[in-house]
């Protein structure tokens, strides 16, 4: 069946829904998405459900992996139909309790919401990021169903995916090991759906720093991906980054990345 799937790092669900008149709730009122993958909710289950009460009252369903540390991470999946099954984590003793991964089954496809934390080159935080990517990659390779992993990967794959790539060669998010992980997933049969539909062009970027004039000059990063494998990867027909028309109308430092699957 057809799906419209969107992915968005909300940068704190309470803050995003609290921006009345131009916030997340207003976007949810008009989105055509059937499934929405959320990252960095930064809230407990109770707090998230309270923030999203208007859409949950309207019939949306929420699967959530709460943050393991207060105010950090947290991922969820909003869907118009109740999932057939929900799983939090991917069997990792180190990472399953940190609120970085949740997946839900919908008929023939499994959809995952993923948050890969920001690292810092040559630090234990970066080592942790590589461990997370390795375990996540093994889980993704083991999938036998149609599978779409959406999220904030905090990795720009190629020079087309970051405006100032020359200034970030030695920085986390554009390190050779991180970029090689995306190569590895593609070699395993995953399709970077947005890049497939927008080949050989800069971006489309999905994250812009709040500092300086990054948004106004479109000095962004493309770090929010749909990685799809199986028949659904071939069904992707349109992908759009729902960039706010102006800085003042942003409700996150990311923009929703929305893909239509036939």
UniProtKB/TrEMBL annotation:
The active site is at residues 115, 152, 254. The record marks 224 as: Important for catalytic activity. Transmembrane segments: none annotated. It holds the Pfam family Exo_endo_phos. The record marks 254 as: Interaction with DNA substrate. GO terms for biological process: DNA repair. The record marks 154 as: Transition state stabilizer. Probably binds two magnesium or manganese ions per subunit. NCBIfam families: exoDNase_III, xth. This is Exodeoxyribonuclease III. It comes from Nocardia vermiculata.
């Amino acid at each position: 069946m057809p799906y419209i799937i969107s992915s968005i790092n909300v940068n704190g669900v309470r803050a995003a829904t609290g921006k009345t008149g131009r916030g997340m709730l207003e976007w949810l009122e008009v989105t055509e998405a059937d499934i929405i993958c959320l990252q960095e909710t930064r809230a407990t289950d109770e707090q998230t459900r309270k923030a999203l009460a208007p859409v949950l009252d309207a019939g949306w369903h929420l699967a959530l992996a709460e943050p393991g540390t207060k105010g950090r991470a947290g991922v969820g999946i909003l869907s118009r139909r109740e999932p057939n099954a929900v799983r939090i984590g991917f069997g990792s003793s180190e990472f399953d309790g940190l609120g970085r991964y949740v997946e839900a089954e919908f008929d023939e496809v499994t959809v995952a919401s993923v948050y890969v934390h920001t690292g810092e080159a040559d630090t234990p935080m970066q080592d942790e990021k590589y461990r997370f990517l390795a375990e996540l990659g093994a889980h993704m390779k083991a999938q036998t169903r149609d599978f779409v992993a959406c999220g904030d990967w905090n990795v720009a794959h190629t020079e087309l995916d970051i405006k100032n790539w020359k200034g970030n060669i030695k920085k986390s998010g554009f390190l050779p090991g991180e970029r090689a992980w995306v190569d590895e997933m593609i070699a395993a049969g995953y399709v970077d759906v947005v890049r497939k539909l927008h080949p050989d062009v800069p971006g489309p970027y999905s994250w812009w720093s709040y500092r300086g004039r990054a948004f106004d000059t479109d000095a962004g990063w493309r770090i929010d991906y749909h990685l799809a494998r199986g028949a659904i990867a071939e069904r992707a027909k349109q992908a759009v980054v729902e960039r706010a028309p102006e800085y003042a109308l942003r409700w996150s430092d990311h923009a929703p990345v929305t893909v239509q699957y036939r």
